[in-house]
Every structure is written in C-alpha cells, then in structure tokens.
Amino acid sequence: TMKSIFPEVEEYGRIRRIGASNTLETEKLKLESIDIFVADTSFLNVFSVPFTHGNRETALDEPNTIALSESMAMQLFGEIAVVGRTIRYSGVMPPMDIKVTGVFPALDRHTHLPFKALVSYGTYFFASDLSNWLRKSYTFIRLDKNNEIDNIEAKMPEFSKEYLKPVFEPLGGEARLVFQPLTSNYLNDAVIGGPYPMGNKS
Predict the structure, then answer these.
(1) What mean pLDDT is predicted for residues 7-16?
(2) What is d(CA 49, CA 84) in angstroms, rounded to the nearest whole number?
(3) pTM (predicted TM-score)
(4) Contact partners, residue 174, CB within 8 Å, separation at least 6
C-alpha cells in the first residue's frame, strides 16, 4: 500500500470518474448525471466531507453502496433522510441496485471535484482498471506534519523504476508521477488531467 511504501503519508484516497453519462433511478425520478465518481473508503479520511446522514467512516466500505449529496437525494427521493433506500444504477457499469449509505451537504461548485455522488470502489465493475497505470484515477495524499513533499519526490525515481517502467517501457513510452498542491488546484492552469474545466485567476 502507499503507506507501507511511503511512511510519510498519513492518509491517502483515490477517486475516479465513471464515464460521461450515468443514470440513477428511483420510483420518483430517473436522473442522468456526469458528477458520479467511485471512491475508496479512505478518500473520506483525506477530505473532511461532513455527513448529515449515515456514517462517513463506513459509508463506502461495502460493494453496491453510494453516498449522495443532499441536492441529489432531494431530486431522487424528495427528502434527504434516505440512508438504507435503494437506487437503480445504469451507465458505464452494468445495471445494478445500489444502497444509499450516506448523505452529505452539496459542495461549492468552486472546487476541482464537485462530485454529487460517491460510489464505493468495490462496486466498480472493471476491477482491473483500479490497479492499471494506464487508467486514470486521482490519488490524494495527506502528509504527517513532520514531513514535506520533497521527501516523497526524492523517492520517486526508485518508485518509477520498480512500478512504472515495467508497464510503460514495453509500450515504447515512459511516465512520471507529478505532485500538485491541493490548495492551488482550482485556479492553477498547470493542473494536469482534471475531470472538469478549472477556474480562472482573472
């Protein structure tokens, strides 16, 4: 795991956007959204996303579970106290029933990840993609207070040699991992591969 390779990392979490179009359906409504992501359990440990309903510590532990923003819960159910209710999913992944395990306040749009729903990583049908360097996931890390990002960057050549080189060299390419400070992401023109258009400093 990342913590075993980089002991400087206090917490880490991964998130991945699941395609351009996904549909959530209840008896009340059929809703199409581009703002649905899959996230691992530890993602909620990196970010202080408060839950108004459900347990944020366990909400994404099990397969076929989803946490909704309050605005999406209102659209789908007409209320926000919906933990334990079922939604029918269809889209990039095969159709399935998923259970609501958490509800969180709507995020400010002025963020580079304005997700409206988080599906547990264990739900994601293409499991091999989650450990595939050729597929895009966003990994966020939080360092302990005694370390700086320079400590990790110094280890990256050896890390890349062991994990990235065997994947990319046979394809005639190479890759490197780039660290970007979270606090400057939204207004940073140099941010690489964001899922949404960023803000503009001007």
Answers:
(1) 87
(2) 20
(3) 0.81
(4) 164, 165, 168
